[in-house]
Every structure is written in structure tokens, then in C-alpha cells.
Amino acid sequence: VLAFDYRGYGVSSGRPTEKGLYRDVDAILDHVRTKMKSSGPAIYWGRSLGVSMAAYATTKHAPDGLFLESGFPDARSQFRAPSPMALLALFSTYRFPAARFLGNSQVPVLVMHGDADTVIPYEQGRALYERIGGPKQFFTISGADHNDAAAPDERTYWSAIRDFVDRRVAVNSHETH
Questions:
Q1: What is the pLDDT of residue 172?
Q2: Radius of gyration of the chain (CA)
Q3: CA-to-CA distance for 37 and 99, rounded, in angstroms?
Q4: Active-site residue 177, yes or no?
Q5: Torsion on CA atoms 51, 36, 19, 21, rounded to nearest 10
Q6: pLDDT value at position 91?
Q7: How far is residue 69's CA from residue 51's CA, in Å, rounded to a whole number?
Q8: Contact 66, 54 (CB under 8 A)
Q9: Which of 3, 86, 87, 117 would you call most buried, defined as having the most Cβ atoms within 10 angstroms of its Cβ?
């Protein structure tokens, strides 16, 4: 597992810009390709704004699978949604076109979204799912808000993730033998 904070988030310094965030993704993908060796499947996981970053990453180096949790199709869709992000979307030049990045992708995707999300409405997760062109699955996280996805039913949450990973591992093993 490799997790990172892109600029301006978590413990990373800097100021987040859309281009800068994509450069961060490019840098981490380069690091993984040149410095890390793995015999297992590569699965990207994007959460919230990170959904756009993970979707972008698939256009650079396709993984074996993709988790998209609590995301939205693009920044403009937030303007149409009743959410705290709507005002930001109205005045923003950010695009974050996750759905466009995945429109023609054949990477298997698990889209997960809490049906009680107060930051990015559940309907936005469904809209993202509908616009993905390749193999996909949607998982409703019952009772989950934006920052507590696993809390309402941790066993079911992790079971959905584990099942998706197990299928990617099985496909990867079959292809390498």
C-alpha cells in the first residue's frame, strides 16, 4: 500500500491547484513504476476530490482496478447540487473531470458513496457511476456521511472492498499463469 497527500492536503506543503495536483499524481506514478516492484494487482483509490486524481491516474497508467469513494463527475456538477461545494464550483476555474477521464476506460471500477453524505450528495456519486464507460459496480454505504464512510457498518464496507480486490487478484493471477 502506498498512500500520499498531494500538495496542500494532509501533511504536504504547497498550495493546491488543479495542474499541480495532476503533477503530484504524475510524480507518484513515476515513483511506483521506477522504485517499487510488485507482483500483485495495482488498485488506485480516490476519495472525495481524490476521485478525480485517481481517475486521471488511469489515463497515465491503467491499474487493475479502481475505487472511487464519495466523488463527483466534475466540478461543475457541484454547482447543480445542493452542497457546501456548490459556491466553490460556481466561482472556480477547476474542472476535475473524473467522469471524462473514465468515459472510455476499461478499468474495473467500484464506486462507493454514502447515502447520507452532506458534502458531496449521494446523487453525485450515482451521476459519476452512470458516466463511467467500462466495467463498474456501485456500492451504497448505508447511513454514511462524507467523512465516516466505514462507521455505520464497517463489516459491510470492508467486505465490499475485499470482494472487489479479491476479484482483481484472481484476474491478475489468471493472466500471469
A1: 66
A2: 16
A3: 30
A4: no
A5: 50
A6: 47
A7: 7
A8: yes
A9: 117
E strand or H helix that includes residue 24: helix 18-35
Pairwise CA distance, residues 157 & 150, whole Å: 6
Chain position carrying cell 501533511 = 11
What DSSP string runs through 102-141?
Answer: HTT--S-EEEEEETT-SSS-HHHHHHHHHH--SSEEEEEE
State the amino acid at position 171 in one-letter form. Answer: V
Identify the active-site residue in 26, 38, 48, 166: 48
Contact by Cβ (8 Å): 109, 136? yes
Quick: pLDDT tens for 34-66.
Answer: 888 777 789 999 999 899 999 999 999 999 999
pTM for the whole structure: 0.85
48 is catalytic: yes
User: CB of 91 within 8 A of CB of 73?
Assistant: no
Q: Mapped to the 3 state alphabet, what secondary structure does 60-104 carry?
A: HCCCCEEEEECCCCCHHHHHHCCCCCHHHHHHCCCCCCHHHHHCC
117 catalytic per annotation: yes
Pairing mode, if any, of strands 109-114 and 136-141?
Answer: parallel
Residue 146's nearest CA partner among 57, 49, 2 is 49
Query: What is the distance between the terminal CA atoms of the chain, rounded to a whole angstrom?
Result: 24
Higher pLDDT, 12 or 123: 123
SS3 113: strand
* Catalytic one of 77, 83, 113, 146: 146
Give the SS3 label for residue 168. Answer: helix
